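Students often ask why inverse folding is considered easier than folding. One informal answer: many sequences map to the same fold, so there is more than one right answer. In these notes we will look at a single instance of the problem. The structure comes first.
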């Protein structure tokens, strides 16, 4: 395999690793055990990405920094992907009434809360997203629900254009990471620079 072909191969593999990170970040929004499944996938994706970057830029510490920055890709697609998904397939429900508050006790983490709500003739279980408190019985709540049933519900303020833009940002972030590794000029080692300066002086 020629050097050019080998380089292209590592670029493709790096792109696949970054794609896996982005997809896993979004799929982690899925109901059930998707989050537990996607966590090790993200870790494996990061571990596989580093050798690809090392092949593209041998003997450089830049690949480690780019690998660290790649952690933000699943975070962007987790937050932005959920919002974008509900923007496309979500249904807005307004004025739903909270009928009860359910407490879920955990031995190794703080208790979590969910609400049983009624929206017209529909009965749903609403789990508040991060940073949002559960409602009291009798309160009203607006929701954006997934008509496909794949992801959880979100509050309307968390389905926005700003959050949607995190998805294209993740794409640009990933492409930019690979371009950075390929194109950023290398720094000349200090010893070599000093030797060159002394030679010029003499």
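Output (designed amino acids):
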């Amino acid at each position: 395999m020629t050097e050019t072909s080998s380089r292209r191969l590592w670029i493709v593999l790096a792109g696949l690793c970054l794609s896996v990170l982005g997809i896993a970040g979004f799929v982690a929004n899925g109901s059930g055990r998707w989050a537990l499944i996607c966590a090790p996938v993200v870790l494996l994706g990061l571990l596989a990405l580093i050798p690809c970057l090392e092949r593209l830029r041998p003997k450089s510490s830049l690949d480690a920094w780019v690998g660290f920055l790649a952690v933000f890709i699943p975070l962007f697609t987790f937050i932005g992907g959920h919002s974008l998904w509900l923007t496309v397939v979500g249904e807005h429900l307004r004025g739903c009434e909270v009928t009860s508050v359910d407490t879920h006790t955990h031995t190794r983490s703080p208790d979590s809360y969910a609400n049983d709500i009624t929206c017209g003739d529909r009965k749903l279980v609403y789990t508040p997203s991060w940073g949002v408190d559960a409602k009291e019985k009798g309160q009203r709540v607006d929701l954006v629900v997934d008509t496909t049933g794949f992801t959880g519900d979100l509050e309307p303020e968390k389905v926005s254009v700003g959050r949607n833009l995190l998805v294209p940002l993740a794409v640009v972030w990933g492409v930019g990471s690979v371009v950075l590794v390929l194109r950023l000029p290398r720094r000349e080692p200090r010893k070599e620079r000093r030797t060159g300066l002394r030679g010029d002086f003499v």
